[in-house]
Amino acid sequence: MSSLNSPLLDNAVAELSKLPGIGRKTALRLALHLLRQEKETAFALGSSIIEMRENIKYCKRCHNISESDLCPFCSDSRRDPDTVCVVENVKDVLTVESTHEHLGLYHVLGGLISPLDGISPSDLEIESLVKRVKEEGIKEVILALSPTMEGDTTNFYIYRKLADLPVKVTMLARGVAIGNELEYTDELTLGRSIQNRMLFKDTFHE
Amino acid sequence: MSSLNSPLLDNAVAELSKLPGIGRKTALRLALHLLRQEKETAFALGSSIIEMRENIKYCKRCHNISESDLCPFCSDSRRDPDTVCVVENVKDVLTVESTHEHLGLYHVLGGLISPLDGISPSDLEIESLVKRVKEEGIKEVILALSPTMEGDTTNFYIYRKLADLPVKVTMLARGVAIGNELEYTDELTLGRSIQNRMLFKDTFHE
User: Fold this and answer.
1) Cβ contact (<8 Å) for B50 and A29?
2) Contact between B65 and A89 using a beta-carbon 8 Å cutoff
3) What is the pLDDT of residues B1-57, one digit of tens each?
4) Shortest alpha-carbon distance between residue A151 and chain B (Å)
5) How does DSSP assign A154-176, residue by residue?
6) Which residues of B fall within a CB distance of 8 Å from A50?
7) Taking CB atoms and an 8 Å limit, are B30 and A19 in contact across chains?
8) What is the pLDDT of residue A1?
9) Is B20 helix (H, G, I), strand (E, B) or coil?
10) From the list B45, B67, B90, which residue is nearest A49 (CB)?
11) Rounded CA gap, A142 and B134, in Å?
12) What is the ipTM of this complex?
């Protein structure tokens, strides 16, 4: 007799608990929930996962997820090909898109340089970024990486790689977050936002 | 262009967010995690869900989940068929089993009587319990339902249904939880545990 009295349930619970943030108790709750639903519900979930993994590919140009060779951004002629926003992963594409402030293309690195985690520049899509800058005549590369040690390392590495090319390399502004109380802003961020202080009149957007 | 730039990803996220306690943000995180894994990982998860829902049935006798007509408990000759523990759902079978205190069989009601939720006795496996008591010569029915209004209602309903049959009907002891501070025990529980106070010498289990 297996621990849950059913090898099939055991197996589903084991697979569900491999998901990040889902422990064995939650996995059991989800599996029992699925058992109570119509068969169609469980089948739709199972097959949506399989079909997604089977058919989603990566864009040959920017390495965003895509169902064809080029992702919807790269194949959209209304996007500005002169400006490329460099992000860590696919999710950050969605995060940047949600601001509606970037109208250009993307380049997904697939991670950040992190010697501690064994991630070196060659594991990331950095060479392909340099190649794009050379071949596509990109005018501006916006580094939109997390303001962490890994993000800063990666920013600097890419900056050096692009230094000799005729491209403007910009990065996200660092400063106090909008809506945050100054009292709770860490001193590093606050210090940086004093160094990078802006002319007040420049803050009036149109 | 769909909201996530991929109908396949959209679909998987939509199906995942139907799971209880999983919102859209978590569903997206899980889907992107699965995209980063080997294909086999996603396939194993998807097919484990489908196969579980396809092949798990319910025990004809006690309505616990089962992969055959009789569940592992009902078909295990070492379990005592004279004592049947009545539980709300499949999960509670596991909860009771984890105590190693019940060596008999189970009967899974599939819910509790709850007029507010539209659950009446006829929606539950109560008639089949009465039938089992009559036909199987069960000597004791242990009501192991939650100490809630719905649990109490269901306890009382079952008690009345079995009143004329030669069976002992018992229920879980109500009292202060082991390890809890008395100060934080609610007065109802504390009051009940005074009413049902035990001889101190009876508490020495061998």
Assistant:
1) no
2) no
3) 346 678 999 999 999 999 999 999 999 999 999 998 999 999 999 999 999 999 999
4) 20
5) HHHHHHHHHTTSS-EEEEPPP-P
6) 42-43, 46-47
7) yes
8) 39
9) coil
10) B45
11) 77
12) 0.76
Q: Residue for token digits 């699965």?
A: B34
Question: What does the pLDDT look like over B136-195, one tens digit per residue?
Answer: 999 999 999 888 889 989 999 999 999 999 999 998 887 878 777 777 778 888 877 787
Q: Where are the beta strands (DSSP E) in chain A?
A: 57-58, 65-66, 80-87, 104-108, 140-143, 168-171
Residue A26: predicted pLDDT: 94
Residue A160 distance to chain B (closest CA, Å): 29
Is A66 within 8 Å of B5 when comparing Cβ atoms? yes
The 10s digit of each residue's pLDDT in A136-167 is 999 999 999 988 889 989 999 999 999 999 99
**Contact at CB, A53 and B72, closer than 8 angstroms:** no
| C-alpha distance from residue A78 to each of A65, A72, A90, A93 (Å) | 19, 11, 21, 17
Report helix, strand or coil for A91.
helix
pLDDT at A179 over 80: no
Which tokens hold the place of B157? 């309903």
